[in-house]
């Protein structure tokens, strides 16, 4: 049987188009995954630069100014330096736990960003248990810190890992109870539904006004979860010589550095979603989309506005967290545990009871 040359060319072109189509589908599938990762990485660099500038302003000194305009490339220069530094391993430590610990700390926090909405349809995974998935995944990070401290074969590092685990357990419970109160108010655990429930009444519908006690408890618990001053006991320099990261160098030390700021960024985003109305910046009873006359045809512009509003609220909370670090002294370990178990836990339980009672009376 003789096959015409034009038929062979047509078959080849067909298969070529099919292969190009498959490659295009794979690339398009990876875009929603890598875009948030890139955005979060840039956000971490911005936080590092902001912390250095704000701390310099509070202490009346000059911050970074030589690496790029206004020193904005200083964090990138530090990351590049850590990337090329020698990666040392403790001779008598557990090298597997020592290597896996930083990866677990970073990966668990990155997975939390799956359920963060930046717009009505701008979310990687709109799950019905979104906020509780964040709590469950973020609870894995202290396990990585404990593995790092134990694998270092250093008593100071091990104590730092134990402090991180104890601190996380102490403040995870009040934080979870506050999230449960928000879920009861919104009749949903989906992050998108929680933001939509706050948009019904405009500015006064934010959970900040409906749950002021829960907001304060959530704020304190978030700072403790992120190990920020005055709650940075797992890496206290005076008694632990930097704690669980004492034996680390190079890129593995850089991963701990990234995980700390990444956790702060994700926690700030959840504060925005749970208490500050998410992507909806509403003046009293005037929503921003109507203010800018955004309709369905202007969906792209509305999405950009939503992202900008979410980031503006997030960095407002970040400013508070950074200012707190350079204002308050560090707590002692007994003070930290007493604050978590004797004050925040009863207050968050009382707040949950009040929220449940109000919801039952409104039925």
Automatic annotation (TrEMBL):
Broad class of the protein's primary localization: membrane
Coiled coil, from the record: none
EC code: 7.1.1.-
The organism's place on the tree of life at top rank: Eukaryota
Keywords: Chloroplast, Membrane, NAD, NADP, Plastid, Plastoquinone, Quinone, Thylakoid, Translocase, Transmembrane, Transmembrane helix
Subcellular location: Cell membrane; Membrane; Plastid, Chloroplast thylakoid membrane
Record keyword Coiled coil present: no
Family: Belongs to the complex I subunit 1 family.
Name recorded for this polypeptide: NAD(P)H-quinone oxidoreductase subunit 1, chloroplastic
Natural source organism: Tetrataenium yunnanense
């Amino acid at each position: 049987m003789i096959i015409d040359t034009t038929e062979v060319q047509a078959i080849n072109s067909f298969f070529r188009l099919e292969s190009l189509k498959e490659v295009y589908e794979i690339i398009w599938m990876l875009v929603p995954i890598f875009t948030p990762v890139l955005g979060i990485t840039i956000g971490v660099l911005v936080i590092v630069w902001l912390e250095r500038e704000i701390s310099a302003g509070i202490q009346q000194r000059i911050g970074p100014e030589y690496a790029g305009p206004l020193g904005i490339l200083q964090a990138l220069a530090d990351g590049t330096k850590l990337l090329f530094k020698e990666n040392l391993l403790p001779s008598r430590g557990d090298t597997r736990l020592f290597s896996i610990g930083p990866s677990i700390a970073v990966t668990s926090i990155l997975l939390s960003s799956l359920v963060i909405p930046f717009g009505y349809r701008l979310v990687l995974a709109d799950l019905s248990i979104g906020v509780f998935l964040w709590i469950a995944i973020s609870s894995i990070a202290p396990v990585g810190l404990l593995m790092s401290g134990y694998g270092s074969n250093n008593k100071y590092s091990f104590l730092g890992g134990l402090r991180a685990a104890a601190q996380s357990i102490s403040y995870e419970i009040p934080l979870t109870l506050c999230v449960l109160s928000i879920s009861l108010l919104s009749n949903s655990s989906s992050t998108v539904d929680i933001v939509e429930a706050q948009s019904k009444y405009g500015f006064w519908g934010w959970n900040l006004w409906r749950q002021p006690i829960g907001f304060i408890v959530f704020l304190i618990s978030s700072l403790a979860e992120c190990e920020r001053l005055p709650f940075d006991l797992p890496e206290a320099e005076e008694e632990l010589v930097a704690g669980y990261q004492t034996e680390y160098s190079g890129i593995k030390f850089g991963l701990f550095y990234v995980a700390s700021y990444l956790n702060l960024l994700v926690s700030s985003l959840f504060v925005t979603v749970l208490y500050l109305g998410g992507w909806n910046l509403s003046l009293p009873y005037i929503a921003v989309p109507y203010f800018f006359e955004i309709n369905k045809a202007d969906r792209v512009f509305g999405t950009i506005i939503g992202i900008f509003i979410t980031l503006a609220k997030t960095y407002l909370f970040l400013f508070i967290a950074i200012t707190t670090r350079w204002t308050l002294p560090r707590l002692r370990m007994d003070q930290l545990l007493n604050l978590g178990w004797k004050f925040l836990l009863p207050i968050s339980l009382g707040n949950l009871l009040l929220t449940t009672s109000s919801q039952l009376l409104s039925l």
